Every structure is written in C-alpha cells, then in structure tokens.
C-alpha cells in the first residue's frame, strides 16, 4: 500500500515542522512527529508528499468567473479579484479550483516569492510535493454547524457551503465579532443576529488559554461544542486528504510537469540502459533467426541429397514434401516403418562384410526391399545373402550379369511373412 507524507510547512520564524505518514485510507501509520524538513524526508523517502501551508499568507476567494478553462480562465482571475488584492498581480500566482454548483470558483492567491521559498526549502530537504494546500482548506465542513479552529492567535471559520477563512486577532471575542460569528455588542445600530450553532476544535493548550473567554460568550451561541485535539490538528486535517477538493497551489509555472527536464536527468541513465538492453535483445533474436534460416537451408540440401540417392528415378521438385508423400504411401499400403528401418539396418551391416559392394538403386514395398547392386564377385554377393539370413531375413539373388568391374545383380531382401513380387 502506498504512503503519503503529510507535513505542515514551518511558519515564518520557525525552523521545525510537524508531519505524519498516512496510507491511502488516511490512517496514520505513525504518530505525529516534529523536526526539520530533512528529518521528515528521511522518514518517508519513497512515498508521496503533500504539504500544508499557513493560510495567513494565502488569500482564499470564490469569485464568479466567466465560462472557460485553462489559460483563458487564468487570465480572468486577477480581474475578478482586483478589489481584494494589495500586491501587483505580476508578483502573485493564482491557483484555480473546481467550479461549484452555486456558480463560484474557489481560487487561492499567494505571493510568487513565498511559494518559491516553500519549494526551495522542500527541495533542499530532498522533498518534491505532489500538492500544497492551504491548511484551513482541509477543515471539515459540517452541514448544520459552523466549524471553528483555534490555534494560538488564529481563529479559522468554516460555515456550511462556504470557503474557510482565518482571523488573527485577540482577544477571542474580537476575533469572533470580526468573523461575524457573534454580534458586536458595541454596535447598537446593527440588526439582531441569529445565534449560530458551532463546534470548536482546539488543542488542550489552546483551550486552556481561551476557555474562560468562551465560557463568557456561551450565551452568544445557540450551542457550542468543544472538541479537543489531543494529538494536535494534523491528524484531524489528514482525514480530509484522500477526498479533498481543496485548491492545489502547484499550478501554472509551479505545476510538477514543469520539472520534466530534471526528472529526465534523474532517470536518463536507467532509460538508456533499458534501450541498450532492448537493442541487444533484438540483435540477438535477429542473429538466431539468421542462423536458423542457414541451418534450414543446409538441412534442405541434405534432404535433397538423400532423396536423390534413395529415389533416383523421380524428378526432384520439393524433396521434403516428396519424401513425406512417399512415407505416407508406405503407411497406406500397410508397410510398417519398423520393418523398413530394420531392413536398412541389416543392409548396412551386410555392406560391411563386402566392402566393395555398391547399391545402385533401392525400392521398398510390402515389407520387401529390392536392390540393384554392383559386387566385385558372386562370392561377395553370397556373403551379403548369408549375413542377411543370419539376421532373420531372407536375401535372394533374382538375377546377375557379369560386367567389367565384377557382377551386377538384382537382390531382394524381405521378411519371412512378406510375399515375393516381381
């Protein structure tokens, strides 16, 4: 199962961060840990990396953008947010989320230099993030309640169906007023506000600091539940990672695809080795095919030679097929291949007892082998016949004619069960 390293980027002035390792089901495999980014990298070298950035340096908005996508939509974002921006748009980067059914499109805005600084710190530690999300964007959404997250001097708020936002203000009562969670007691002209039902998430330390203030404000809420984050906020936020629709800041110039050349340099050696192995394999196969074709040509030549010797009266066309056809004919006539092979074996032995005897022609049918032979003398023919008889077969001289080199004879070799034929 693949793992994901989820870490929070250090806020300005801090050197340490916190992280945990989780599987695809968002179950933390280890407890939350703290340390440097390089230590976090050593914990999970092969897993995916997802980073959470403090929302204090990120603007989250949900403008209504014109229809479109890609470059066209990206160009429209700065104009839709120009009243909320305090920096030159050339110094900012805009990340666009998925359009909501209500018509709004989530947008995250961050300074290019800030985002470059985060990526540089991660790269120095050997980390390449798959995504960077604003931390408050992973706050759970509760359909019936306002979700509050108190962390040190920051109060994050998420109402049903709305983007989260954060307020950095103390005391807590002023932060709640600015966030619009409770009515301003000093504004007598403000219309009456319906108390909200809220659930507050906080660590034990943050709750101990703010408990008295919230107790004084309980009558400002319809209901207020407190959930203590015993292991800190990171495991709580980690639950939303697999299904989050939060805006990923790594878009445009900062998308991971822009680092293709660096990844190619990293894998170039392995790729070249793979190509070399493939070329060697193809070359070896080509050589084997060439060698097999050569051997086939040699075998065809040998088959042609055997066929010409065994069947000199037939015209040579396709020796392989002609030889198979003749063997099939032997099978159909009832002649057993075992008899034929045994006859050839005995004949080969007989030729050794009469060294100067030569076979000029040979045919086989009905378990009988007819031969035209040339021998130095009748005595040599008699030696051949006697040897064959000792092997359990009969050899009869059908005819003989004196010639200059000896005797030319017609010899028949057969099994005792075969019938004589002329």
Structure keywords:
10 helices, 422 residues, Gyrase A, domain 2, Nucleotidyltransferase, domain 5, alpha+beta
How is this structure best summarized?
The chain is α+β, with helices and mostly antiparallel strands. The chain is built from 10 helices and 17 strands.
Describe it for me?
The chain has 3 domains: 1-140 and 239-254, Nucleotidyltransferase, domain 5, CATH 3.30.420; 141-231, Nucleotidyltransferase, domain 5 (2-Layer Sandwich), CATH 3.30.420; 333-414, General secretion pathway protein M, EpsM (Gyrase A, domain 2), CATH 3.30.1360.100. The protein contains 10 helices and 17 strands. The protein has helices spanning 37-43, 70-80, 112-124, 172-178, 204-216, 233-238, 260-310, 319-332, 337-353, 378-390, and strands at 3-8, 17-23, 33-35, 48-53, 58-61, 92-96, 107-111, 131-134, 146-151, 154-158, 165-168, 196-202, 221-228, 358-365, 368-375, 394-403, 406-414. The strands form 4 sheets. It has a 5-stranded mixed beta sheet with strand order 3-2-1-4-8. β12, α5 (204-216) and β13 (221-228) form a beta-alpha-beta unit. α7 (260-310) packs across α8 (319-332) and α9 crosses α10 (378-390). The protein is rod-shaped, with a radius of gyration of 48 Å. The two termini are 84 Å apart.
């Amino acid at each position: 199962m693949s793992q994901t390293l989820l870490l929070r980027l250090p806020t300005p002035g801090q050197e340490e961060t916190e992280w945990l390792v989780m599987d695809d089901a968002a179950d933390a495999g280890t407890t939350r840990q703290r340390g440097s980014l390089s230590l976090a990298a050593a914990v999970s070298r092969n897993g995916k990396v997802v980073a959470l950035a403090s929302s204090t340096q990120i603007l989250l908005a949900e403008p209504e953008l014109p229809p479109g996508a890609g470059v066209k939509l990206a160009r429209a974002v700065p104009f839709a947010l120009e009243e909320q921006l305090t920096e030159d748009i050339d110094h900012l980067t805009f990340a666009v989320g998925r359009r909501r059914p209500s018509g709004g499109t989530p947008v995250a805005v961050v300074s290019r230099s800030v985002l470059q600084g985060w990526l540089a710190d991660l790269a120095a530690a050997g980390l390449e993030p798959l995504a960077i999300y604003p931390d408050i964007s992973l706050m759970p959404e509760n359909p019936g309640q306002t979700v509050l997250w108190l962390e040190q001097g920051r109060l994050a708020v998420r109402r049903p169906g709305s983007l989260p936002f954060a307020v950095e203000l103390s005391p807590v009562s002023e932060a709640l007023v600015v966030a619009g969670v409770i009515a301003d007691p000093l504004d007598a002209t403000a219309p009456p506000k319906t108390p909200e039902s809220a659930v507050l998430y906080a660590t034990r330390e943050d709750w101990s600091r703010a408990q008295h203030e919230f107790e004084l404000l309980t009558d400002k809420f319809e209901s207020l539940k407190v959930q203590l984050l015993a292991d800190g906020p990171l495991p709580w936020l980690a639950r939303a990672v697999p299904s989050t629709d939060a805006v990923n800041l790594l878009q445009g110039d900062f998308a991971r695809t822009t680092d293709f050349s660096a990844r190619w340099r990293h894998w170039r050696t392995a790729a070249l080795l793979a190509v070399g192995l493939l070329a060697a394999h193809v070359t070896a196969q080509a050589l084997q095919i060439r060698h097999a074709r050569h051997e086939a040509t040699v075998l065809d030549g040998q088959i042609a030679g055997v066929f010409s010797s065994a069947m000199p009266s037939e015209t040579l066309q396709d020796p392989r097929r002609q030889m198979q056809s003749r063997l099939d004919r032997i099978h159909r006539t009832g002649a057993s291949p075992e008899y034929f092979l045994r006859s050839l074996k005995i004949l080969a032995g007989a030729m050794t007892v009469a060294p100067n005897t030569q076979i000029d022609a040979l045919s086989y049918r009905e378990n009988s082998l007819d031969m035209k032979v040339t021998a130095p003398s009748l005595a040599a023919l008699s030696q051949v016949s006697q040897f064959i008889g000792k092997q359990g077969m009969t050899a009869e001289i059908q005819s003989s004619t004196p010639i200059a080199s000896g005797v030319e004879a017609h010899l028949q070799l057969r099994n005792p069960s075969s019938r004589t034929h002329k």
